[in-house]
User: What shape does this take?
Amino acid sequence: MNKINKKYIALLLAAGMLTANATGWPAGTISDFSVNLFAKAENYGDLSYENQIFNINITGCSDSATELNIPSEIDGLAVKGIKTSAFYDKKNLVSVTVPDSVVTIGNSAFANCTNLRNVSLGNSVTAIDYNTFQNCESLVSITIPDSVKKIGKDSFNGCSALSSVTFGSKVSTIDTDSFYNCSSLTDIVLPESVSNIKDGAFYGCSSLRSVTIKNPDCVIYDSKYTISKGTSGDKNITIYGYANSTAETYAKNYGYTFALIGSSSEPEIPTETLPETTTTTTTQTTATTSTTTSTTTQTTTTTTTSTTTQTTTTTATTTTPETITTTTASTTPETTTSTTATTTTTTPETTVTQPVQNLPYGLGDVNYNNEVNAEDASLILQDAAQKGASGWGIFGDDQRNRGDIDRDGNSNSADAAMVLQYAAYRGSGAGEKSIAEYFNLQ
Assistant: This one.
């Protein structure tokens, strides 16, 4: 099937999806159809893969494979993902290179690859997910690229030979048991971006000598197991941080030596040079206007209006003797009106607007190519179908947040339909609104 035919089929699929929404087809029908129609397993050397219309997902490799250099393209389509458990328990695998085109690596993708020694991750991977490298007991070192924001639960659990971890500058969360029983780790330096270290993150690291925590406000789970050499109870660990930081508090609470960052005793950790990257950050500012009007006679009426995105309608009637106090809270200072006598205060039906908060940068752009189009819709459908089938999708947390267009907490076929609707609007040349502006989300 050539690329042109695929685009026509994608358009037919989009039309079918919109029809399904209008006619009430069961949830998931279209997404299951779309993924199963095109996800045909094929081979590329030692690799197996699925063609997902607009991109390629790697699904596995031969049992005899020892070195894998995953290509950035297959048949002219970008390789975007490595599926859940793709290389699970491949005992002969020694070396893997992941290209910059890959955005997602599924859970347990390399788990139990006991002879895997060398891994090179591309600069587009967004997360090291649940169990990704669990029990890779020959893995010696790993460099986490700047694109990664989260080190998932049990991701390096049992990597007993792992002695060096270089963290990228965007990692924010070290999840539960991430480096559990990494018995060869000696010195750890966590960048300022790390804001959360969860329970057991560095438990059982029996060779651990120091942990440097550069974020003075990092949330460190309050447990002796968060940073620990294990059951021996050995407290010979130095925690480096800033004065009055959470690192200092944690060290004192659990009997570790604390030293200031920059002191002569701070260990020098060799660092690896990562490829130069350019990061562009766009900040959106949402303004809310509130107008408060109060009129008092025998009846006091209070009306509050502001800019509309989500609508809440409230009607209330209260009758009280003596003194009535009505307080209106908005972004303007608090206003209090008092009337003496028996008064009825009525808040008439009012339209109150509450703009959607915390819209992610890149809403709808789940493949990080600075565009929102049918390819993003296809990926959202794939993630929803995979999640429905196995409980784990192909997206990391950031992608799923970008794919949740209607902000209902889920990324699914309804969001894919919104992406297609927006793509049709932009393709028609009718305007240049962002997807958030188009659907009045801001």
Q: What stands out?
A: The mean pLDDT is 76. Residues 374-438 form one domain. The first strand starts at residue 41 and ends at 44.
